[in-house]
What does this fold into?
Amino acid sequence: MTYLQERKLTGWLYLAPFVVAFTTFVIVPIGVSLWLSVMRFDLTSRESVSFVGLQNFQDALKDDYFWQAMKATLWFAVLMIPSMLILALSLALGMHAMNRGRNVVRAMLFLPGMFNVAVAGILWQWFYNGEFGLFNFWLKGAGLAPQPWLSDRGFAMPSIVLMSLWWSVGGTSVVILAALQQIPKQIFEAATLDGAAYFPLLSKITLPLLRPVLMFVVVTNTIGAFQVFGQPFLLTRGGPELSTRGVVQYIYETAFNNYRMGYGAAMSWLLFLVIALFALVQYRFLRRGHQ
It folds into this structure.
């Protein structure tokens, strides 16, 4: 065997574990879900598995519960994505301007993201508890009336968004901070010598140079927002009146509680198409503004 052949074989041997894992846990599940989406696969029925074509997709598009779940998911995304972008950018700009203590603040912001969603959900259940929760304790101490954080339709989704921001804003702000630190200081020094104030520097130099990173942040947070599951499932179980039950939770309940695997797979593919559409629109819009 020649040296080049040995080198090629060595490369494939190094790649083999990843290829096997990727095929097993990504490619095969995608293929199975696509197969299930066109099949009648109901574990509660005595009928055998049968091919139904696009019937599951048609049923989903006529399902009021599916559209109600999609509406709740969109409402979460509308509240979450702008809030995340503004808050993470503000925190990143603040840390970038710090001369001391930046690493401490960065670690404190990143710390909540190290908790899994179950731990964060249990913690915020206590914060929002109507009888002995921390937030209502503070309101009572200030002489204000306690609020139904998770039991009122008007409060439930904003409360979930607040918990989600606390849990995930640290990672996003650190990404933006890393991009800020890559901008050459000479650019700001030259603009300052020309008499540019802070806000013109921000709008004319900082934000345009951050556009690729902001595009990445917006697209990834959009994908995450449409896949929200753990936060509403732990805090409200989709209530009150299904106002916080997102599409992923409805898919989970359909497939694993009601055992309608084919129908759940079809809805998951519809969700994938919605996410891909929103991500593509955002990418085209942000990229066109960059040109």
In short: The mean pLDDT is 88.
